[in-house]
Design a protein that fits this description.
This protein is α+β, with helices and mostly antiparallel strands and 444 residues long. It is built from 14 helices and 18 strands. It holds the Pfam family FtsA.
Length: 444
């Protein structure tokens, strides 16, 4: 447990130092593309100490001065499976972003979408001595949470306090300085597969970069795609990426649940390639320019020339109707949405007072997807795009960049987590997370 605590504190310190120097890089390691943004922070005191518990604590003003994307290689289902190929892709994206920015970056904050995330709701309670609630009281309350046994090969990615209660008053964002006798806390803990984190850290290290933070794509996509009222009242963000579809639920500006479906836009592309017997590049082009969800009578007559590059003239100049293309795509899209629906039902999303659903990610741009998703997931659904931030290129304003922009906001506006408090050494959960996050020692 001490390894986890100290490793995360070390990453926070690295991020603070990088931002104080003025430049840090954002790395979105996806299955279809790898995006890199270079952020410049204004002023020597850009990264202020946290003044409150919760989101948007310690805000910083930043501007994007470099951006680059490259085709992802060696990444499947949001996880790295070929380190050498992914390393080359990361180097390409980072070097292009550095060239555009005109500066060198040494520290990156990365996000990824796979690794089988699992959510846990924890609760703790302590007695408060006479006087106002102090920082040490909050730390003791967090340490009192009964952390479950996550199982072998699982590690903690996020551990965020989402609610405080002082005596009979609940819903407190920051109890420090208030008077009371009994302090209770609710915390959301997100664990992921250890091997995926280890591989990501190793790959970043091979690129001669220091890892200053890791986040879940489902989390950072919601930070970017959900407006403030949706985060406050309750909403679900569905991030349809290339290899995985992330699901996150927010309320009171805190993430309370996250999960992922191991299917995405690349799965649909694979179905087209198999169904039409064409290369993956041709299938991706057909999906992007001619794909859809709902077929009409006109689609039977609209013929699409495949235009492959196999060298066989007759095969390359085959023509298929748009209705045939839609007939291949729709079943897979329905399957993905049904899996998302099952996750939302399991999480108890229907119990929230507001049940807004925001669909984002590159695969969410398929024509007609919003209508089908509204019928399967719920009528309160809209397509989400990332927030506009200073310096963001026009090419990076689409739904496919929600994770990258959200990770930039995550870097500049960190939400307080468990390791931001001085947990008493004697209160570490001795058995629950003894195996957690030892990989940082080997990857610093």
């Amino acid at each position: 447990m001490t390894d986890l605590y100290q490793a995360q504190r070390a990453m926070r310190a690295m991020r603070r130092a990088a931002i104080q120097r003025g430049v840090i890089a954002i790395l979105d390691v996806g299955s279809s593309k790898i995006a890199c943004l270079v952020l410049r922070f204004d002023g020597p005191d850009a990264f202020a100490e946290s003044e409150g518990v919760g989101s948007m604590a310690g805000q910083s003003a930043f501007r994007i001065i470099g951006a680059a994307t490259t085709r992802a290689r060696g990444v499947r289902f949001g996880e790295i499976d070929a380190v050498a190929e992914t390393e080359r892709a990361i180097r390409t994206a980072v070097q292009a972003a550095q060239k555009m920015a005109g500066v060198r970056v040494d520290h990156v904050i990365a996000c990824f979408s796979g690794a089988g995330p699992r959510s846990y709701g924890l609760a703790g309670e302590v007695e408060v001595a006479d006087g106002p609630v102090s920082e040490q009281d909050v730390a003791r309350a967090l340490a009192s949470c009964d952390v479950p046994d996550l199982g072998a090969g699982r590690e903690v990615l996020h551990a965020q306090p989402v609610n405080f209660a002082l005596d009979h008053r609940s819903g407190l964002k920051d109890p420090r300085g208030q008077l009371g006798h009994k302090l209770a806390v609710d915390m959301h803990l997100l664990s992921v597969d250890a091997a995926a984190l280890q591989t990501l850290a190793y790959c970043v290290k091979r690129c001669d970069l220091e890892l200053a933070g890791v986040a879940s794509s489902a989390y950072v996509s919601a930070i970017s795609a959900l407006v403030e009222d949706e985060q406050e009242l309750g909403a679900a963000c569905i991030d349809m990426g290339g290899g995985a579809t992330g699901v996150s639920i927010f309320i009171k500006k805190h993430m309370i649940f996250a999960d992922a479906v191991r299917m995405g836009g690349d799965t649909i592309t694979m179905d087209i390639a198999k169904g039409l017997q064409v290369p993956l590049a041709t299938a991706e082009r057909l999906k992007t320019f001619h794909g859809g969800i709902h077929a009409t009578g006109a689609d039977d007559r609209e013929m699409i020339e495949i235009g492959a590059e196999t060298g066989d003239w007759d095969k390359d100049r085959r023509r298929v109707s748009r209705a045939d293309l839609i007939a291949i795509m729709r079943p897979r899209v329905e399957e993905i949405l049904e899996e998302v629906r099952a996750i939302l039902d399991h999480a108890g999303f229907d119990q929230l007072p507001c049940q807004q659903i925001v669909l984002t990610g590159g695969a969410s741009q398929i024509p007609g997807l919003d209508g089908l998703a509204a019928r399967i997931l719920g009528q309160n659904l809209r397509l989400g795009r990332p927030l506009r931030v200073a310096g963001l290129p026009q090419a990076a304003t689409g739904p496919g960049f929600s994770a990258a922009v959200g990770l930039a906001l995550f870097a500049a506006h960190p939400q307080d987590e468990w390791w931001d408090f001085e947990i008493p050494a004697e209160r570490y959960p001795a058995r629950s997370l003894r195996r957690a996050l030892r990989w940082f020692r080997a990857n610093w």
